[in-house]
Amino acid sequence: MTEKMDVFFNAYGKDIFIVMPAYNEAKTIETVIYELLPQGLQLVVVDDGSQDQTSKIVKNIQKIYPNQVRLYRHPLNRGLGAAIRTGMEASLLENPRVIVTFDADGQHHADDLIPVCKPVIEDNADVVIGTRNFQEMPFRKKFGNNVMNIITSIFYGINVNDSQSGLRALSKKAAETMELHARDYGVSSEIIGEVKRKHLKLVEVPIVTIYTDYSLSKGTNTKVGLKILAKLIRNVFK
Question: What would the DSSP string read from start to end of 117-142?
């Protein structure tokens, strides 16, 4: 940890709650958690009905860090949106200053927590989106994410560079205000929509993304984007 990170997290780490949705993430979650814990952050893992050793791994870490790690488990897989909502509700019970969503698949850098959290801590933003570099993004991910950016713009009336980023920070006010209903990956667009609907201040900051075959198998792709589009259209004509 650099001196700059050390100073930042010594001051704010205990008030930053990391919500980590996890579905069958036994391959990566231990490494991801141990990269975050030295910063003194509060970690809320939501095991969304995993069928592997995800919960067991987190429970073992929890025994070592009982004051930093919390584990919630859905008996059945309910989807990313439901897991994020559970994590946010659990975090709000403990009066956080910042709530950060952080993927468990190893694609995010702990170093990016400062630029994502800082605008919220300094009251310059209610919501901060960590924007990935689309030039570096593999085509199969880029196309799906571009589709979702367009869908988000059409259905929610707000343009952002990376609507599907899993690394985002919310103030306590934003988390309390948002009304999230999507149970699947559509939650990412829904969060953007709530920014506009609740008149929240949004800031985007660049982040670094680690692309591996494993992380590329997760998240939004063209198929997922089309499913979300179909669902949004059905909701419009209900």
Answer: HHHHHTTS-SEEEEE--TTTS-HHHH
The amino acid sitting at 202 is L
Half-sphere exposure of 118 (CA within 13 A, CB side): 12
CA nearest neighbour of 160 among 134, 181, 184, 136: 134
pLDDT digits (tens, 9 = 90+) for 160-215: 999 999 999 999 999 999 999 989 888 999 999 999 999 999 999 999 988 776 65
**Which CATH superfamily, name and number, covers 3-236?**
Spore Coat Polysaccharide Biosynthesis Protein SpsA; Chain A (3.90.550.10)
Q: Domain extents for the chain?
A: 3-236
Contacts of 122 (CB under 8 A, 6+ apart): none
| Residues composing the chain | 238
Which tens digit of pLDDT belongs to each residue from 63-116?
999 999 999 999 999 999 999 999 999 999 999 999 999 999 999 999 999 999
- The 3 state secondary structure assigned to 136-203 is CCCHHHHHHHHHHHHHHHHHHCCCCCCCCCCCEEEEHHHHHHCCCCCCCCCHHHHHHHHHHHCCCCEE
Kindly list the distances between the CA atom of residue 15 and the CA atoms of 4, 42, 52, 62, 129, in Å, as whole numbers in the listed order: 17, 7, 31, 18, 19
